[in-house]
Amino acid sequence: MKRSIAASVTTALVMTTSLAFCGGASAQTMDKVAKVGALGDQSGLYQDIGGPGSTVAAQMAIEDSGLLAKGWKIDLISADHQNKPDVAVNIGKQWIDVEKVDVFVDLAASNVGLAIANLSKEKNVVNLNSGSASSDLTGAQCSPNTVHWVYDTYMLANGTGKALVKSGGDTWFFLTADYAFGQALERDTSAVVTANGGKVLGSVKHPLNNADFSSFLLQAQSSKAKIVGLANAGGDTTNAIKQAAEFGIVSGGQRLAGMLLFITDINALGLNVAQGLNFTETFYWDMNDQTRAFSKRFMERFKKNPPTMVQAGVYSSLIHYFKALEALGGNPHDGRAVVAKMKELPTDDPLFGKGSIRVDGRKIHPAYLFEVKKPSESKYPWDYYKLVATIPADEAWLPLEKSVCPLVKKS
């Protein structure tokens, strides 16, 4: 059931780790009060990749930061943006002006992510985006208040697109979600395909949260392209893959490229359908001892699934944010100053390892090309991926010298 904007705010899940201070508290103490706003899709097609799980990850980051034991007061509030930029901005304004939120996290859906990036810049709060994919967040629409943490459309295109072209998939047709994310992903993947000697034969746009892909799949089938690129996500991707099987797309000789897939998507599809799919991610729960240890703790609270890379990014980005607050000695309310300190400090956490944040706000870490296992290869619950290749951090992302971000000074 859709809720009004007011209802989204007033019924937002609030998880509070401390009581708000009264007006008579000292300025020094008030400087150590911070509020986190987890703004995600709590009920729609992206709820499994972020949403409620992101709120759990944010709470874990607050507890693991160590700041509570050092006298900090950190509150957490969450709400459903319904994948609508206007809803998100109205909630965001209420949070900043009334709830005194200092930092946004999650933000799945690029149209929402870009809208909150603009609001964060206007209001000078911190914007830690792990849910949106559009590379414009660190490109033409970059901001001194935004850090783009987990993945972007350039990385997805560079990882999956390049690998498929080099393996013989040199003609492409795109099924593209008709909003900012899908358009950016098709744009960035098309550039990678053509740069590596391939050719884009065409594309078709479909509405967000689409149920029937039959007409779009018929166009892809008639194109005779070797690769049908799915420039969509969540339920749109899983619906398209399931219906492509019904249309005999793969059995007819074409290959599907899920340009953005999450472990929850693979689970929804099942290994019988998803086996053999190649895709790029920056986090996998079963990657090493550290990711497994975190995922075990996460699943003790969130019973539904192990952390997706968006949920892992919420945790990781907040851990680094809290390190910056501690380094500053307080005052979380100057967003630009906090982000500047985050860029100054090297990043290091058990989920993404060592990395850095560039001047354009792009978080830099390795990416991984995975293949979905066959059912016979999966040995335990959620054992879905096998690693095909590691893409080094200095190769995974758009080179800084090619960035169009106004924050990047050109020599």
Secondary-structure topology with pairs:
Elements: H1 5-10, E1 14-16, H2 27-30, E2 33-40, H3 51-64, E3 73-80, H4 85-99, E4 103-106, H5 110-123, E5 126-129, E6 146-148, H6 153-166, E7 171-177, H7 180-195, E8 199-206, H8 214-223, E9 227-231, H9 234-246, E10 255-258, H10 263-269, H11 271-274, E11 278-281, H12 289-301, H13 309-328, H14 335-344, E12 347-349, E13 353-357, E14 363-364, E15 367-372, E16 385-391, H15 393-396
Parallel strand pairs: 2-3, 2-4, 4-5, 5-6, 7-8, 7-9, 9-10
Antiparallel strand pairs: 1-3, 11-15, 12-13, 13-14, 15-16
Helix pairs in contact: 3-13, 4-5, 6-7, 9-10, 13-14
Defining traits:
Rossmann fold; six-stranded mixed sheet; 411 residues; disordered N terminus; four-stranded parallel sheet; alpha/beta; single chain; 16 strands; 2 domains; 15 helices
Describe what this molecule looks like in 3D.
This protein has 411 residues and is of the alpha/beta class. The chain has 2 domains: 33-151 and 287-365, Response regulator (Rossmann fold), CATH 3.40.50; 154-281 and 368-396, Response regulator (Rossmann fold, 3-Layer(aba) Sandwich), CATH 3.40.50.2300. Helix content is 40%, strand content 20%. It is built from 15 helices and 16 strands. The strands form 4 sheets. Strands 1-3-2-4-5-6 form a 6-stranded mixed sheet, sandwiched between helices. A 4-stranded parallel sheet has the order 8-7-9-10, with helices on both faces. A hairpin with a 3-residue loop joins strand 12 (347-349) and strand 13. Helix 3 (51-64) packs parallel to helix 13, helix 4 runs parallel beside helix 5 and helix 6 (153-166) packs parallel to helix 7. The longest helix is centred in the last third of the chain and has 20 residues, at 309-328. The termini are far apart. Pfam families: Peripla_BP_6 (PF13458).
